[in-house]
Amino acid sequence: MTCLAGPGEPLELHLEEVASCMAARGRWLAPKLARVLGVEEALARDLIVFVGYAHDVGKADRKYKDADRYFPHHEAKSAVAVQKALDSADWRIRRLAVYAVARHHYSFKELQPLGKVTFQPRCKITISWRPETELFNEALNLLFRDAEDDIYDSAVSRDFLEALEGPARYAGMALLGLLSDCDYEVASRNRR
């Protein structure tokens, strides 16, 4: 079964191209993220690419089986999947990823917990990327497990959506800006 990201654009293609764009354009951001997070640059590079792959994974939910243009609140489903996939990660890494994914359409301007969000994947998405770090290798496997393997029924806490502070604020804004730029460019090129 093929899931769509938008009219005429397969979700798998969209995620691959957004992640590729983020990898290429995010080279300047990785060293800065690494400094802010206190991690190796490889982990920061993986975070950037992972966010590109994860941002629209919520569109694979069964709720959208007949959708091709409008996927209301898919970013909430994506954020829940990211939070679960990065459960073993340092909270700062998890928070930056959830923040960028949840807000990638500038959603959740009014801060509030997302409440219970169900994510039931309905299609298999194959990813070509191989992360540099074990953390993101595990997270990728959790995020793109076989359809019907798991149903996430969870909440994204307000803590993950609140404005970041200090250097993390600027790191989050840069990651979100990069995602938004790549997402728009890829969608504009591929959708009919």
Can you characterise this structure?
The protein has 192 residues and is mainly α. It has one domain (4-190): Hypothetical protein af1432 (Orthogonal Bundle), CATH 1.10.3210. The chain contains 8 helices and 4 strands. It has helices spanning 11-25, 29-37, 41-54, 74-85, 91-102, 134-143, 158-161, 166-190; strands at residues 4-6, 9-10, 116-119, 152-155. It has a two-stranded antiparallel ribbon with strand order 1-2. The protein has a two-stranded antiparallel ribbon with strand order 3-4. Helix 1 packs across helix 8. The longest helix is centred in the last third of the chain and has 25 residues, at 166-190. The mean pLDDT is 85. Residues 4-185 form the HD Cas3-type domain. Keywords: Antiviral defense, Hydrolase, Metal-binding. One of its GO terms (biological process) is defense response to virus. InterPro entries: CRISPR-assoc_Cas3_HD, CRISPR-assoc_Cas3_HD_sf. Pfam families: Cas3_HD.
